[in-house]
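ok so i was messing around last nite and threw this chain in just to see what happens. nothing serious, just curious
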Amino acid sequence: MVADCAYSTSDDWYLALREAGLPYVVALKPHRGTWARADQPHTLIEAARALAWRDARPPGEWTPVERHFRDGHIETWWAADARLGGYGPDSPCRLVVATTDPGMLPEKAT
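result:
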């Protein structure tokens, strides 16, 4: 199941997918928040900013990904596992951030 962020405001929707045992991928709004300790990220964009990045060499926690577009052109984007609340690389629910620029995290391309 793949959905865009229009569905991401309903936690009931996610729970129904999880309870049905259906794997899913959902695009989330970058400022969606969650409860966390004071010293931890509280929004998706804060979780993305917490990932190590200096530049493409070395890329820190980011991995280059080739994105292929319908018109045939290819761009290098960057992806990383982030941690936020119950999301994380070791959790049943992963949070993967994708962006064109890990240093700036442009709003329209993250």
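not much to say yet. The mean pLDDT is 86.
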